[in-house]
């Protein structure tokens, strides 16, 4: 079964074909993120206009070499997200469903993120083809690449259940219990800011532009412990009983500490970036491992834009090694994190999710739901 996925919840315009919920046939992502560097955040009106402009070229690229007869269903993100952006994808999907006479499957963007972990190659290994990424700028045609299929790398183990799934994105930090591929229970989430939001807001303070998580990661790597001034930030709710998170206190602490320094030199910025990254990743890893132990998970799935962070990936790996050494559960607990290009927004996850959870609906009943619940 081949599903064409469409994703337009924020500042990406993406389309992908996924076979059997696991194999990527094509994967195209256009991002207008560069436009928002000077604003320090996404401007919804501009994002939606760019999506209108790019939806058809991206779709055409994803369908290269295929016709409507190769597609069994259309999956589309209906929420949560920006209303103007969501409408572009939703109305495009409805138009295709009507004119091609195909079923349409509404997808929850946040839940879809975790299905990036289900992508495998023909040999059953989790292999993730590299996406075609289009950075939207002034010239459309010169930036559309010739080919939309390439191979990459990924995880190579089968996901065993029960599993714990952490979704960490710009707007969400959620923990789920997965009884199997289709049955999910929400365990907890952030009470205020999401982890990605904490990265983005503190990055802005440090002088970085829109979606500053990546900038924090790069800058944190330049931190020199020998020049350490001794900044220590809080790890909110790290040791409390619940499986909830809270990151707004961290942002407040960063503002307070930042104001204490008159000279904002590179050494200081490096140390702030390093400590911000440490604080956020410490909390994410501690809470997720706690959930995995509490629910006797056999697999742990991490996904969403923040899962692209190298330090978070390393920290999870280290914790797993320690856990295995101490518990002797070497063969019982596996960690899954998608290739970076499938952590940030894409349509592969949407098509894969639709395959596992999809409930086809009549196109007339599909609407964009900006505040769609993730619980
Ligand atoms: O999943 P995503 O692409 O979009 C949403 O659904 O929100 O996640 C975007 C978030 C942003 O907050 C961005 O700063 C963060 O993911 N992010 C990162 C990294 N790459 C993206 N955060 C930390 N380190 C990264 N390398
Ligand atoms: Zn996302």
Brief write-up:
With 375 residues, the protein is of the alpha/beta class. The protein is 35% helix and 17% strand.
Would you spell out the secondary-structure blueprint of this structure?
Elements lengths: L1 E6 L4 E8 L3 E9 L12 H19 L10 E7 L3 H18 L3 E5 H6 L17 E4 L27 E6 L4 E6 L5 E6 L5 H11 L7 H8 L27 H12 L6 H29 L4 E5 L6 H18 L6 E3 L11 H10 L18
Parallel strand pairs: 1-4, 3-6, 4-5, 7-10, 10-11
Antiparallel strand pairs: 1-2, 2-3, 7-8, 8-9
Helix pairs in contact: 1-2, 4-6, 4-7, 5-7, 7-8
Bound molecules: 5'-O-[(R)-(carboxyoxy)(hydroxy)phosphoryl]adenosine and zinc ion (ZN).
Zinc ion (ZN) binds next to helix 3.
Structural write-up:
With 375 residues, this protein is of the alpha/beta class. 35% of the residues lie in helices and 17% in strands. The chain is built from 9 helices and 11 strands. The strands form 2 sheets. Strands 5-4-1-2-3-6 form a 6-stranded mixed β-sheet, sandwiched between helices. Strands 9-8-7-10-11 form a 5-stranded mixed β-sheet. Residues 122-156 have low confidence and may be disordered.
Global outline: globular
Element order: H for helix, E for strand: EEEHEHEHEEEEHHHHEHEH
**How would you state the average pLDDT, rounded?**
88
The helix tally amounts to: 9
Small molecules held by this entry: 5'-O-[(R)-(carboxyoxy)(hydroxy)phosphoryl]adenosine, zinc ion
Poorly predicted regions: 122-156
Strand neighbour order, sheet with most strands:
5-4-1-2-3-6
Helix content: 25-40%
Oligomer status: single chain
Strand content: 15-25%
Instruction: Kindly name the structural category.
Output: alpha/beta
How many whole angstroms does the radius of gyration measure?
Answer: 20 Å
The number of strands is: 11
Alpha-carbon distance between the two ends: 28 Å
């Amino acid at each position: 079964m081949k599903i064409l996925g469409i994703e337009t919840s924020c500042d990406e315009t993406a389309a992908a074909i996924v076979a059997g919920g696991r194999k990527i046939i094509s994967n195209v992502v256009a991002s207008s993120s560069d436009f928002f560097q000077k604003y320090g955040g996404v401007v919804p009106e501009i994002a939606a206009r760019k999506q209108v402009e790019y939806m058809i070229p991206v779709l055409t690229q994803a369908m290269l070499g295929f016709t409507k007869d190769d597609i069994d269903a259309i999956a589309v993100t209906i929420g949560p997200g920006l209303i103007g952006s969501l409408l572009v994808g939703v109305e495009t999907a409805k138009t295709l469903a009507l004119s091609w006479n195909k079923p349409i499957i509404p997808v929850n963007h946040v839940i879809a993120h975790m299905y990036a972990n289900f992508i495998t190659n023909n040999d059953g290994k989790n292999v993730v083809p590299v996406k075609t990424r289009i950075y939207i700028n002034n010239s459309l045609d010169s930036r559309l690449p010739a080919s939309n299929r390439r191979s990459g790398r990924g995880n190579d183990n089968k996901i065993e259940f029960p599993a714990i799934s952490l979704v960490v994105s710009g707007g969400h930090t959620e923990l789920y219990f997965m009884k199997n591929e289709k049955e999910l229970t929400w365990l907890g989430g952030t009470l205020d800011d999401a982890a990605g939001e904490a990265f983005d807001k503190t990055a802005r303070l440090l002088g970085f532009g829109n979606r500053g998580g990546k900038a924090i990661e790069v800058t944190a790597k330049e931190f020199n412990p020998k020049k350490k001034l001794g900044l220590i930030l809080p790890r909110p709710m790290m040791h409390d009983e619940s499986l909830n998170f809270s990151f707004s206190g961290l942002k407040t602490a960063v503002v307070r500490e930042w104001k204490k320094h008159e000279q904002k030199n590179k050494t200081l910025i490096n140390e702030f970036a390093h400590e911000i990254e440490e604080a956020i990743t410490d909390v994410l890893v501690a809470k997720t491992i706690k959930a995995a132990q509490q629910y006797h998970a056999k697999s742990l799935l991490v996904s969403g834009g923040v899962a692209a962070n190298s330090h978070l990936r390393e920290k999870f790996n280290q914790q797993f090694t320690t856990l295995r050494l101490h518990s002797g559960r070497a063969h019982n607990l596996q960690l899954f994190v998608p290739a970076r290009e499938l952590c940030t927004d894409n349509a592969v996850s949407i098509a894969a999710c639709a395959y596992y959870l999809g409930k086809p609906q009549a196109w007339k009943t599909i609407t964009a739901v900006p505040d769609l619940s993730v619980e």
